[in-house]
Amino acid sequence: MIVLNLHKTLQSAQGTMSLQLEMTVQKGQFVTLFGESGAGKTSTLRMLSGLMDPDKGYITVNGTTWFDKDRKINLRPRQRHIGYVFQDYALFPNMTVRQNLEFALDKNQPRTIVDDLIGTVELRELQHRKPDTLSGGQKQRVALARALVRQPEILLLDEPLSALDSAMRQKLQQYILEVHRKYELTTILISHDVGEILKLSDRVYEIQHGRILRQGSPETLFGLGQSSAKFRFTGEVTGIRKAGVVYIVTIRIGNDLVKVIADPSEAEFLQTGDKVAVASKAFNPVIRKI
Amino acid sequence: MEWGPLILTLKLAAVTTVILFFLAIPLAYWLSRTTSRIKPVIEALVSMPLVLPPTVLGFYMLLAFSPNNSFGSWLDEWLGIRLVFSFAGLVLASVLYSLPFMVHPVQSGLSSLPRSLSEAAYVLGKSRRTTLRKVLLPNIRPSLLTGIVLTFAHTIGEFGVVLMIGGNISGKTKVASIAIYDEVETLNYGAANMYSLILLGLSFVTLLIVYLVNGRYLKRFSR
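ok -> structure tokens follow
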């Protein structure tokens, strides 16, 4: 169980911001921090990992105190034993994929874990390549595998998939879910993608200006909670076209493009790029075995 | 022409470069990381030899280390080190004089690396020292090479500071640049020309190596 109580004054683009967070994460949970950029999400992960010192507060993990301002306890990042996947991957350019993983080994730690992880994220063919020659998705898999070499109990993911295309995203979400279960991790993810959050997380914290605005299960937080006779999908508007008295809105849901009719009063508020929920009463669905 | 001054020059440049390499790395690392208020002071001190006439540096070193005053005589009596008109003195002067040429490239190399590289190493359980040695330094090889070669070449080209503190003692402190001056003074232009040609060639070749090797590095990284 992770208990966080963090106070920190941060310098952001909009001036100073005071971050005040209290959060309890249960062991084995998959938690997402959601919110605008500059809200303090990355700072929270940095304080948890010891890369940034809070001004006040405490951090305890499974009963051990990692940080306590009043008791002057502050474990160094290397003593905290966590896996951290950076937004820019932070792979070491001078080492091959395999050496990147081996570098993370603790003294006397058996090397079998490296092979195991390379297998899990399917990097066997690429293991002797340098990071510069890899694609974004491949780099991300290396970063994920490297973060797990020391077999941490906590995995922190700072917008790991933001730079990837949607097909690659889907695949990596699968890897993340797989390692989360396989290694029984407590995972904290930063993400802006509602679909991704729904797919991966048990619990969401929405953070705004350094405070927790709302928290709960992703279904309730994004208003998808009540089981009803409805289909409901989230997608992105890719085009709006006027057709006579109505508008035809093209929406990308996953990898499918769906055309939906909207009346002018609805279409008025939509523009290309908007995230939308598409719902339909399920009174006449067709069920077909595939 | 004798080979003595040339060999002495190369020996001085080599010793200076080795000492500066190990001295400049911790200093450059500290400068690239610190937020201390005295950082500008240290940076100014490191860069001083770039703007200061070498004779000024040599003059004060001569004063400081002269056995005729207290610090110099203390060194002489207690430690048996005489830094005036000796090879050790030349090395010390060269180390000070070439300091910016090693510190600047290494510092800018370290500063150019993304912060997340060292942070990734820390959260992977590595100490600062291991991170510097295994992650940071291997990724700034072009900067290290630039520092080494510039220091070496700059030490070869020293004149004023060497003359002030070392004088012109054959086989002990008479380096090539001073030998040239010496030969010209005695109107022996032939020998001066030989020394000069060799220094010219040496400087060109060392700089050529830097640009060739670093060019290859850049090509590899920009792919």
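The CA atoms of residues 214 and 220 of chain B lie 10 Å apart.
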